[in-house]
Amino acid sequence: MGKGCMTATKYFLFLFNLIFFLSGAVIMGFGLWLLLDNQSFLVVLNNSVPIKVACYILIGVGAFSMLMGFVGCLGAIYEIRCLLGLYVTCLVLILIAQIVAGALIHFKKNVLNEEISKIVDEVLENYSGNNSSTEKTWDFIQRNMECCGWNSHLDWNINKVVVNSSQLLFPCSCQNISFATENFSDSGFCDTQMDDWAFYNVGCAASVENWLDTNIGVVLGICLGVALIELMGMILSIYLCKNIHMEDYTKVPKY
Prior knowledge:
One of its GO terms (cellular component) is plasma membrane. It is a multi-pass membrane protein. The chain is mainly α. It has a domain of 138 residues: Tetraspanin (Cd81 Antigen, Extracellular Domain, Chain: A). 65% of the residues lie in helices and 2% in strands. The chain is built from seven helices and two strands. It has a two-stranded antiparallel sheet with strand order 1-2. Helix 2 runs antiparallel to helix 3. The chain is elongated and about 85 Å long. The two termini are 34 Å apart.
């Protein structure tokens, strides 16, 4: 009976570690997507050090989780007590790091919103219509979310080009294409003094915040799932480690 429980525990632990390994790959992939996607809102935030640090932390946690999943699989299959002990210790550290990260996200949410608003104001102020990656992303956001400015179209009154122009200019991506009667541009500035030119009256803040909340929810959901796997992994590892009386290193394959 005891041997059967040990065998079942060993293979269940292997299964949990395989899931843990795959979950780490998902976390790392999500961090890479946030960092490298040229059409995500984070391109607008490319000057924000905290945002970049958060992406690198996600990538690091994902890679470390994959490594620990591999170590756990190896320790479970070959019943190596030192690897299982290392595995449990690292799981505890990862779990603590996840709790701290979740607490920071929750309690620093207002600080994050202020940081985003500050960066967006800089983007609007310095927008020149030169089709840089940041400007393309902001045009993409306004066009697809059907919004103009951060809180409203009045936010564009701080733009240097708009302020210094003798014409009444607005980014072409602000144009409400439902009322467009001729060809329209997706980028740069347009002269809005034409009778048929109408812009979106809604700001992008609500839509972008919903986008961020959705993606943060995905991250937190993945972390919660990984935490449950970690707890199960710790329980199974401790049970297996206690019932391994001596390490049999002859089971480890030689290369």
